[in-house]
């Protein structure tokens, strides 16, 4: 959207004092609405991210298609033998025990956030974030805040702005899963996560929305949830839906501290959404199967092509011979050592941008050490095709209150809720690792078009 972007930046240049006042208004509104990260106002830019209508459609079609194909592949890999799949992903026994439990409804993924890198003619998804991703509450509130900024109102005289509130679609998806679970009452909703997480304000926004829609709702720590008479409770409130925000890997490390919470899942004392089964297709090692044509023969052509077109080539780090996306056979580790600029190396089961090695930004010695560490580690690591990170110019506020235009790397994170895309956020960074946890920023996404 170069025309819309240029016009927005012209508005800043035409009245720098008004732009500075708008930035002050934005920061104050973020704090007032509780849009915080690690106790501070969410890092943002004065300009949101813009998508043209055709870019928005391409993103939606790609996201829905690749998620559907990935979930179908999960059902068919290893002939549907889930134990072999768990073994291939090297999942620990404690996690396997959770994955063997049927949650009471069939959908492995009810709500998720995808990491998308748009290219001129395609959309690539580097990761799936099924296991309790944050951002839906932030996205809804930031959209409202930005639309109140005077500079956005001036911009809207030239370009129409369409932003999504993902909360209604999220609630609809939760209620649909709850009905499939067999729930008949108007459900109470417990948002369950550790009390000290940095994204707690995102949960407050969702709790308040659920209450406004007529559902009793609380935020509870999994250690405080209790099992009584076959039902889960947070204090005196019975939890019918557990909107699970506690990350599985962190829960597994504290199982002894959250016995009732886990027992509630095992006995279906409440409807847990997402269930722990979402972890399989989120695992980055799973992408190694999804991008290997030899593993996908059981899928229809359209599903197979959705995966190969929209996912970057990925392989589990191991002493193995494999094929590149162009069909050439290689020795994986030897090839990766010689062509580090073509790859990214990262743990298969981690989040927040931790321990990610960008080959083109890593020296030979560090890269070789990381490869050897990955080979020897009990946990799986993956090598992924390096995807060119898209860049856009954003207005960055300076110490004197003015603005300078800087190129920022970014990705787009659409929310797929109940099988359809509703809303998205964009994240920006000056480094190739784009993550708010790793020092990046987050901004709302608007679909824009010239006013006729």
Describe the structure.
It contains 16 helices and 23 strands. The longest helix has 24 residues, at 53-76. The strands form 6 sheets. Strands 3, 4, 5, 6, 20, 21, 22 and 23 form an 8-stranded mixed beta sheet that branches. It has a 4-stranded parallel beta sheet with strand order 8-7-12-13, with helices on one face. A 4-stranded antiparallel beta sheet has the order 14-19-17-18. Helix 9 (200-212) links the parallel strand 7 and strand 8. The chain has 2 domains: 2-282 and 390-450, Rossmann fold, CATH 3.40.50; 315-385, Dna Ligase, domain 1 (2-Layer Sandwich). The model has no long low-confidence stretch (mean pLDDT 94). Helix 3 (53-76) packs across helix 14 (301-310) and helix 6 (136-147) packs across helix 9 (200-212). With 452 residues, the chain is α+β, with helices and mostly antiparallel strands. Helices cover 37% and strands 26% of the residues. The radius of gyration is 22 Å and the shape is globular.
Classified in CATH, the superfamily of the largest domain is Glutathione synthase, substrate-binding domain superfamily, eukaryotic
Strand content: 25-35%
CATH architecture of the largest domain: 3-Layer(aba) Sandwich
Rg: 22 Å
Approximate shape: globular
Q: What structural category do the secondary elements indicate? A: alpha+beta
Describe, in short, the structure shown.
The chain is of the alpha+beta class and 452 residues long. The chain is built from 16 helices and 23 strands.
Walk me through the topology.
Layout: H1 2-14, H2 16-32, E1 36-37, E2 40-41, E3 49-51, H3 53-76, H4 82-88, H5 93-99, E4 111-119, E5 122-129, H6 136-147, H7 150-155, E6 159-162, H8 167-181, E7 189-192, H9 200-212, E8 217-220, E9 226-228, E10 231-234, E11 237-239, E12 241-244, H10 248-252, H11 259-266, E13 271-273, H12 279-282, H13 286-290, H14 301-310, E14 314-316, E15 321-323, E16 329-331, H15 332-338, E17 343-347, E18 357-358, H16 364-376, E19 381-385, E20 391-397, E21 403-417, E22 420-429, E23 441-450
Parallel strand pairs: 3-23, 7-8, 7-12, 12-13
Antiparallel strand pairs: 1-2, 4-5, 4-21, 6-23, 9-10, 10-11, 14-19, 15-16, 17-18, 17-19, 20-21, 21-22, 22-23
Helix pairs in contact: 1-2, 3-14, 6-9
